[in-house]
């Protein structure tokens, strides 16, 4: 009589699979639960206002809530609006100046505080501290420092003969001063983003390159920098959008100069605010907003296409 081989029961395997699927469902539900507040907030406070602004752009709206359909009339006004084009020029100069300077400064700081040394936590906190302060407070502090002839900076520069320089009251200096303050405010945040990217660079690759005789520059050029492309792309896109529509594009300018002197710091966001709340031209302001958002989407799409979203070259 020969023994017959019998297959083991499949019930334990099926039970394990069901438990695994149940665990995955619980994890997915937990992830959706954590994401839900942000998604709901974005829908209510971002997506819905954007849709409403797009609709209002086709109407002429006064300060009393009277609507009159004008079709594309608000968009046609933009072609002959010299102040709009001047504000776009100021915004473009600010973006072209702020984005690369902030990028280089924050990346240099990240490389500086990358390695651990005594007091590294205090150094990182000191660089990041301006970012946790309200922009209104930041503007007031810098306004106190830069007030003409009586500010702390004017007194410090007095021995050099620069005590009478009006950094916020001179059209040729106001925008540059605004760029410097913006870089000072955001360099800590971007430093932390770069620092997080540097933490993901495998130390083994750097050690292997060093063993092979690569210099510090070669290790940076061929090991660190390629691995930081996604992080660099995020920083550039995020800082570009923030420079056009972020808090520093409105709050900081409004507190420091309110768009002056001689509209030297009048960004496109300041101009939209003036049209909406100073001249009660809500329809035109909504049209301007939709155009600015469309331009940002276009620029972001171009950056994605050119850099492939910061991904590595496959060749």
UniProtKB/TrEMBL annotation:
<feature type="transmembrane region" description="Helical">
    <location>
        <begin position="284"/>
        <end position="306"/>
    </location>
</feature>
<dbReference type="InterPro" id="IPR051393">
    <property type="entry name" value="ABC_transporter_permease"/>
</dbReference>
<keyword id="KW-1133">Transmembrane helix</keyword>
<feature type="transmembrane region" description="Helical">
    <location>
        <begin position="165"/>
        <end position="189"/>
    </location>
</feature>
<dbReference type="InterPro" id="IPR000515">
    <property type="entry name" value="MetI-like"/>
</dbReference>
<protein>
    <submittedName>
        <fullName>Sugar ABC transporter permease</fullName>
    </submittedName>
</protein>
<feature type="transmembrane region" description="Helical">
    <location>
        <begin position="29"/>
        <end position="59"/>
    </location>
</feature>
<feature type="domain" description="ABC transmembrane type-1">
    <location>
        <begin position="84"/>
        <end position="303"/>
    </location>
</feature>
<dbReference type="InterPro" id="IPR035906">
    <property type="entry name" value="MetI-like_sf"/>
</dbReference>
<dbReference type="Pfam" id="PF00528">
    <property type="entry name" value="BPD_transp_1"/>
</dbReference>
<feature type="transmembrane region" description="Helical">
    <location>
        <begin position="125"/>
        <end position="145"/>
    </location>
</feature>
<feature type="transmembrane region" description="Helical">
    <location>
        <begin position="92"/>
        <end position="113"/>
    </location>
</feature>
<keyword id="KW-0472">Membrane</keyword>
<keyword id="KW-0812">Transmembrane</keyword>
<keyword id="KW-1003">Cell membrane</keyword>
<comment type="similarity">
    <text>Belongs to the binding-protein-dependent transport system permease family.</text>
</comment>
<feature type="transmembrane region" description="Helical">
    <location>
        <begin position="227"/>
        <end position="250"/>
    </location>
</feature>
<keyword id="KW-0813">Transport</keyword>
């Amino acid at each position: 009589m020969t023994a017959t081989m019998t297959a083991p029961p499949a019930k334990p395997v099926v039970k394990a699979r069901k438990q695994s699927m149940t665990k995955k469902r619980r994890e997915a539900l937990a992830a959706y639960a954590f994401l839900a507040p942000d998604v709901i907030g974005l829908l209510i406070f971002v997506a819905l206002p954007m849709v409403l602004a797009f609709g209002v752009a086709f109407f002429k709206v006064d300060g009393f809530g009277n609507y009159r359909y004008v079709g594309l009339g608000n968009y046609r006004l933009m072609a002959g609006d010299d102040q709009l084009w001047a504000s776009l020029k100021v915004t473009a100069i600010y973006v072209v100046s702020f984005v690369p300077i902030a990028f280089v400064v924050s990346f240099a700081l990240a490389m500086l505080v990358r390695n651990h040394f005594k007091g590294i936590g205090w150094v990182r906190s000191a660089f990041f501290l301006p970012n946790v302060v309200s922009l209104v407070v930041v503007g007031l502090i810098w306004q106190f420092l830069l007030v003409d002839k009586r500010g702390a900076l004017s007194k410090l520069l007095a021995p050099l003969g620069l005590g009478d320089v009006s950094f916020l009251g001179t059209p040729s200096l106001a925008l540059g001063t605004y760029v410097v303050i913006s870089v000072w405010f955001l360099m800590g945040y971007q430093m932390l983003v770069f620092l997080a990217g540097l933490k993901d660079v495998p130390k083994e690759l750097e050690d292997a390159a060093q063993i092979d005789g690569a210099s510090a520059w070669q290790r940076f050029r061929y090991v660190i920098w390629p691995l930081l492309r996604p992080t660099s792309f995020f920083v550039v896109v995020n800082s570009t959008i923030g420079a056009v529509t972020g808090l520093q594009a409105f709050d900081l300018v409004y507190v420091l100069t309110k768009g002056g002197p001689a509209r030297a710091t009048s960004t496109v966001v300041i101009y939209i605010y003036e049209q909406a709340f100073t001249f009660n031209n809500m329809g035109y302001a909504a049209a301007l907003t939709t155009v600015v958002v469309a331009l940002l989407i276009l620029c972001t799409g171009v950056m994605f296409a050119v850099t492939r979203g910061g991904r590595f070259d496959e060749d």
